[in-house]
Amino acid sequence: GVSIAGPAVRRTRDGGPRGLPIPGGRDFLSDEQATLAMGLYADGCATHFASPTRLGDWVQARGFDPIDGEGLAYFLNGKDGVGWSASNTAGEFVLTFTSDRMCTVWARRADVAAVERQFRMMIRELKARTFRVEQETDSPISLGGLNHVQLAYYVQGPSAEKAAVYMMITAQDDDAPVAARLTAVEVAVKPQ
Questions:
Q1: N or C terminus of the chain: which is more exposed, having fewer CB within 10 Å?
Q2: How many CB atoms lie within 10 A of CB 170?
Q3: What is d(CA 67, CA 83) in angstroms, rounded to the nearest whole number?
Q4: What is d(CA 94, CA 108) in angstroms, rounded to the nearest whole number?
Q5: Each residue of 70-103: b (16+ CB within 10 Å) or e?
Q6: Could you tell me which of 170, 185, 186, 190 has the C-alpha nearest to residue 9?
Q7: Helices 32-40 and 112-128 meet at what angle, rounded to 10?
């Protein structure tokens, strides 16, 4: 099963930030857990959320273990869907995909400032590539009585055929069970 328990750690390691490559040639400065979470998000959810088949193929090619039962129910929060453990020696990660085409990467521990910095960098990169990007929200929220920050952006590809909301929620409390969650969900294309 998947274990997500105890306080979320949101500090960088003593060595400070360092540049780590992410597939696609982008270099981000962050701790390893934030970089891995963003890599899973950028290469998995943000790329394949609109195609369950392609996402499934991507997950299978990486050998992620399926999760089920109570572990999966925790992440799906009452929705139908599937999930996989993408955990490795660097940390605990879960990827979920719901029947309403919501793809989420869950990072048990990560430097939340690094996750936010990398998420904003990805959004800036999309803008630079002529994607239509509009900020939906940037606000504090409470989940389970704990403080979090939520960033959400409407993202539409240059062809204007598909659109999504890319969302990041990071814990601001050390005792949160999940430090960061990164979600991509298909939405209707907005008129210009």
A1: C
A2: 27
A3: 5
A4: 8
A5: ebbebbbeeeebbbbbbbeeebbbbbbbbeebbb
A6: 170
A7: 40
Q: Could you give the CA distance from residue 76 to residue 96 in angstroms, rounded to a whole number?
A: 7
pTM metric for this prediction: 0.81
157 — phi, psi (to 5°)?
-70, 160
Question: Hey, how many other C-beta atoms are within 10 angstroms of the C-beta on 68?
Answer: 11
> 135, 153 in Cβ contact below 8 A?
yes
pLDDT band at 7 (very low <50, low <70, confident <90, very high): very low
Residue 103 · residue 76 · CB < 8 Å: no
The whole-angstrom separation of Cα 65 and Cα 35 is 21
Q: What is the DSSP string of 109-143?
A: S--HHHHHHHHHHHHHHHHHTT-EEEEEEEEEEEE
Bridge-based pairing state of the strands 93-98 and 81-85? antiparallel
